[in-house]
Design a protein that fits this description.
binds iron/sulfur cluster; 7 strands; globular; 5 helices; 201 residues; alpha/beta
Amino acid sequence: MYYGVIKKNDIANGPGVRVNLFVSGCTHKCEECFNADTWDFHYGFEYTDKQTAEILEALKPDYVAGMTFLGGEPMEPANRGTVLELSKQIKALYPYKTIWIYSGYLAEELLARAGIWTADKVPTYEQVPRNRVLADYSPAADAENLAALLKLTDVLVDGEFDKNKKNLRLKFRGSENQRIIDMKETIKQGRIVLADYKDRA
Ligand code: SF4
């Protein structure tokens, strides 16, 4: 996996002070994407154990609330293995720190590909238009890893950026179609459960 940047004291992408990893590679190609350089899977630097050590150290202070993965697309098959391994280490060392992931995929798509939900729960293109529609919702080749990653994720901010629904008042998201999803409750209840974050007035 490649990455563009690691930010160690971010307050824009999730609650509290957070460490951010901007991974490289994204196939959604949203118009007016805020970070189009990162569509290239080889943008930036190669991710190695050195970055894992750096991130784990940055997460250590009590004032750091957690980790946020964004990009790029952390849920691309090429990236999610590395994101999973790092997430496991974060939860082992800091079980009370939260993991947020930003993904252009819908939560239902990811849950179906992970084999946690069935394909009939995935909205059709007519219900939710999107650039990157997965052709197949049978469990992915790495379904077990994807399921493990989704279960470690506290919050998934899902959906592609839609320039026509851009709203600067939104908290922790760029366009109104995107959802801030409580993944623990979503998996437990078998339905999408939104996390409660108020937008700016
Ligand atoms: S999903 Fe995110 S990184 Fe990918 S094109 Fe859309 S806005 Fe850009």
